[in-house]
Structure formats: structure tokens, C-alpha cells
Amino acid sequence: MHTDEFKIAIGDLGVKTTQNRGHTPEEIAEMATDKIISISDNADPMVKAQAYAFRDKTKMVITYYVKEGIKNHICTVCNELEKQGHKDLANIIRRL
């Protein structure tokens, strides 16, 4: 009987949880930035400084667009509720 060797590498896995809430836009941005950008400990100090500045800017941009996405989704939900005659519920959601 012949068997082939099978190997698989998953890489680094991580789990971030919250208790009694969802993740904030800042937490989502941090997770996304961590997936997009990694910085070597052995990098040249000047390159490392640029990489950290780029990472910080990237996190700010992702945070902004996550917040915009949330606002747009809430707007869509509220408009749909109003179309269905639930203006009071739409107003409650807008105030959250």
C-alpha cells in the first residue's frame, strides 16, 4: 500500500471577542490593519518608522470608512422602516 504525505499550514490564528457588545469601528480597523500590514522587528529603523506611520494612517482610514459604512447602513434600515410605516422605530434607531 502506498500513501502520500499530506501537510497543511494554517498560519497564525487569533480570536478577539467582546462581552455584551459588538466590536467598535476602531477594533475592526485594528484587526484589518493587523491583517494588511506586518512590520519586521529586524527592519531598518528608518523603514520601520515609515512602516509604523503608514500603519497608523491605514488604521485611521479604515476606521473612517467603517464608521461611514455603519452610518449608511443605519440610513438604509431607517428609510426602509419609514417606507413600511414605522417612523417611530426608525427614529429610535437613528438615536442609537
Notable characteristics:
96 residues; mainly alpha; flat
A few lines on this structure:
It is built from three helices and no strands. The protein is mainly α and 96 residues long.
Tell me what the structure shows.
The chain is an all-alpha fold. The chain has one domain (25-95). Helices cover 62% and strands 0% of the residues. The chain has helices at residues 25-36, 45-83, 87-95. Helix 1 (25-36) crosses helix 2 and helix 2 (45-83) runs antiparallel to helix 3. The longest helix is centred in the middle third of the chain and has 39 residues, at 45-83. The model has no long low-confidence stretch (mean pLDDT 91).
- The assigned structural class equals mainly alpha
**Helix/strand order:** HHH
Shape: flat
Which residue ranges are poorly predicted, with pLDDT under 50 across at least 5 consecutive positions?
A: none
**Would you count the extended β strands for me?**
0
Q: Average pLDDT value?
A: 91
Q: Note the beta-strand portion.
A: under 5%
Largest beta-sheet characterization: none
Q: How many helical stretches? A: 3
Radius of gyration from the alpha-carbon trace, in angstroms: 21 Å
Helical residues, percent: 55-70%
End-to-end C-alpha gap: 65 Å
Q: Tell me the domain tally.
A: 1
